[in-house]
Amino acid sequence: MLFLLRKATIQTIQTIQTIQTAGKRQRRRRRKKSFLSSSSFEEDSDALVHFIETVAKNDFNARERVRVGQDDIEDRGYALIANRPLRAGEVVLSLPMRARFVVLSSSSEEEDEDIYSWSKPLAKRLVFDEKERKRHEVWLKSLPKEAPRVPGIYMEEEEIERWVKDMTLRERLIRSRRDHRAFVNGCCGDDEKEKRELSRMRSFLQSRIFADDKKRRWNAPLIDFCNHSFEANCFVRTNVGKENKQGKIATAEICDDSFFIARDEEKEEEYFELVVSDEGSIDVDEPLTISYAPSRSGNTNASLFFEQYGFLLEDTENSASFLNSVESVEKFLSFRK
């Protein structure tokens, strides 16, 4: 059940603490070793977890109430599917931005550092700490069967040089690949099985975390279950406004009443939304997909949110997770033509 899995995801994200950066690189690195507590989303996440627990106990009601469910698709792992027919332009999920869970906030001064460094501590805990693995067992089982081939983790240097045309980005990815090799060798020694597992875990984490232009990485419960396809049937957008009726209805499907207690009804709310493409409807049990690329209708919103997102696209044998800006998306698409 999707909601049971989301409970584990939220618990996982709550264990990841926001890293505060300092002026000097050495101080930043020392602080990265010690996660600092952040409670800005505790009240909202508790309410969401409460609802998830309630739904998990009443599975027979969930399918009627919620527009999406989950299924285990061969070779793809868990994915969002439609519980009922979804019309073009319909808001499938609307998540208040205050309900997202910040994993990491970084400064522009870190631009030259390893672009995957944030996933090291959590990956290491989930692989080597039995208590952590047991605590997040349900979430770990929900991960795709195969890890995404994230450049800088799975791609060899020769592959990066062949595929990534941007010189600056290519150099960063090669540095990340070398850093990853040193990381797994330092943690695992000669144990090839542990090396593979640590690499898989880092790729999984990279593929479940959104990023924005303010260099914050965060989890969007439910939306992060979408797989990627160039021929996507959904897109992601932000929506700001107090008159967002369709979004509020979609939010009410995944959050109980306590989630909205003591909210200022007159204040504009920002929502992170999953929306059905304008190009067609979605049938029952059809997987929901999103894409790095702008849709044929010209919608470019989705590409703003997928920096280092890491999924393996269904219709190409190469990962597009090196697309870290709107410009790189455009270059990649023009190169493919």
Q: Would you mind describing this structure in some detail?
A:
With 337 residues, the chain is α+β, with helices and mostly antiparallel strands. The protein has one domain. It has twelve helices and ten strands. The protein has helices spanning 2-15, 25-32, 42-57, 59-65, 120-128, 130-135, 137-141, 157-163, 167-188, 192-206, 245-254, 326-336; strands at residues 68-73, 77-82, 91-96, 101-105, 210-211, 216-219, 227-228, 234-240, 270-276, 289-290. The strands form four sheets. A three-stranded antiparallel beta sheet has the order 3-9-8. The chain has a three-stranded antiparallel beta sheet with strand order 4-6-5, covered by helices on one side. The protein has a two-stranded antiparallel sheet with strand order 1-2. Helix 9 (167-188) packs across helix 10 (192-206). The longest helix has 22 residues, at 167-188.
